[in-house]
Amino acid sequence: MTVFKDSEQMQAMLKDLWTHVIKETDVGPKLKEYDVNYKFVINEPNGFVYVDADQVLTGAEANREAVITMELSGDTVHQFWLKQLKLPVALATRKVKTKGPIPKVLKMLPYLKSVHDSYPVYCAKHGIHAN
Amino acid sequence: MHYLDLNIELTKEDIMLKEAAHEFARDVMRPVAQEMDRMTAAETVAPDSPFWEFKKKAYELDFHTILIPDSYGGMGLSPLQQALVAEELAWGSVGLLVDLAVAAFPAYLASLVPDEELIDEIIVPFCECRDGKIAGCWAITEPMHGSDTITPGYPSFHDPNIPSDCNIADDGDCYVVNGQKAAWVSGAPYATHAALFTRMDEGMGHAGSGIMIVPLDLPGVKRGAPLEKMGQRDDPQGELFFDNVRVPKKYLIVGPEAYEAMLDITLSMTTALMGMGAVGVARAAFEEALAYAKNRVQGGKALIEHQDVQKKLFNMFGKVELTRQMSRAAHVYNQNTSTPAEEYSVLCKVYGTQSAFEVTSEAIQIFGGNGVTREYIVEKLFRDARAMMIEDGANDILAIAAGHKLIGSYPRRD
Fold it and tell me: pLDDT digits over B267-306, tens only?
């Protein structure tokens, strides 16, 4: 039993979350300053999420070149943003695979606190059990 | 001495960074390193040692943060820039480069975990430090274990019958550390924090270890005398002893569930950087030999006019260039993926340090009798290069472990 009901639910929730984060927190300006954008390639359920300083895309149009690509499962997405999984453990156990400069992955980490903080709120909004 | 860089895509920023690192290596590192080389190990870390002036100047220029993201106050270098700077600093002194690199280890590991307490306690103070007084060390080597602790993936790494000399036990809100790390811990004589890689689960062998930041002012930590050694005498090393040292759990970075793979990731960086260090040492020796050969007259003409010397210099030049290209490529590749191809980094270390040894040895040969005197730096470079063949894993064992890995991993697809 996966956390997300299906791809549509997962992508809609993540689009809503990231749109809030890039528009309302310092993540958007930092993505622009550091010239970073992300592509999340998610399996179980399958989906794509692309995030840059100005927009969030999902589905096929999100499957585009990005500075940092992260491959992970839907359940790992959930665990990571709920702080149930540390990044080094996720990387080491191959639950998250990244492509792109590791220094850029690391430099964005302190700014992603707002994603961690907002995640449970958006889970509730989209009817996803946050534990 | 400037060299032709075959990378035509270096930016102005890359070149300026490289030149700044070279100036620091030439004007600060090399003179301090040569002075420390003639001191006893205890004198190198005494209050009046020139080592502290080096630390202060290095920290003032941020060279202690080459591995730390700029979002925490580090230099935020790209992987290529890290390689450029590492070569230049090693040209000045590979021992002092190693000291700077391990000084950053606790902060670097903490940067993998965006925990606010670790950011405030470990990373930011380290980045803001300007007097060199906050420094880490990499505490992995043990009296009964050296290179075998850094062979993830090799069968012996999982052998529960191989006991550890240092252990972490779970005790409520703390971990308790007991045991010893061996005398080859760079920075141990004076470090404020250790990046401790040590056993947590005896039943899993070396794979049952964890990575933890240990403040070295905790009760129960003791240090051994600084180590007297042949090469890299400018890299202060010594033992660490832990007697019921209680470490708050927030300092654990990873436990046994991810240790082996995390060590793989760590080594993919450190062994490639050792390759860059080898380039710096070898290049220094090659440049010394070239300059000497142009001026020294033997047999009625300058050494450089002798065909055998020309051939020697070309072979030395080739080893420098090949090691540089390989080490840069492996480091940049592995810093662009979370599933590093560690065998390529090991190749940089094994081939690179062997090459540095050969190049420094040939430099002495070109210098003749002068090469074995302390009047010329090539004998120090030779001793430093020799130490590198054992440092961070003996080349023999690293090659065996990497060869074992190739059986399953070649050809890699990502």
Answer: 999 999 999 999 999 999 999 999 999 999 999 999 999 9
Listed by start position, the domains of chain A span 7-122
pLDDT digits (tens, 9 = 90+) for B375-410: 999 999 999 999 999 999 999 999 999 999 999 989
Q: Do A106 and B112 touch (CB under 8 A)?
A: yes
pTM over 0.90: yes
Asked if B211 and B177 sit in the same domain, the reply is yes
Distance of CA B293 to the CA centre of its chain: 31
User: Could you tell me the CA-to-CA distances from A57 to A64, B96, B369 in Å, in that order?
Assistant: 10, 48, 69
Residues of chain B in Cβ contact (below 8 Å) with chain A: 69-72, 76-79, 109, 111-114, 116, 119, 253-254, 257-262, 264-265, 335-339, 414
Interface test with B, best of A106, A107, A112, A117 (most B CBs within 10 A): A106
Q: Examine the domain organization and report whether B197 and B228 are in the same domain.
A: yes
Q: Domain of B224: which CATH number?
A: 2.40.110.10
pLDDT digits (tens, 9 = 90+) for A86-109: 999 999 899 999 999 999 999 999
B112 CA to chain A: closest CA distance, Å? Answer: 6
The secondary structure element, H or E, covering residue B407 is helix B395-409
Closest chain B residue to the Cα of A113, Cα to Cα:
B114
Q: What is A7-122's CATH number? A: 3.30.1050.10
Q: How many domains does chain B have?
A: 3
The span from the first CA to the last CA of chain A, in angstroms, equals 14
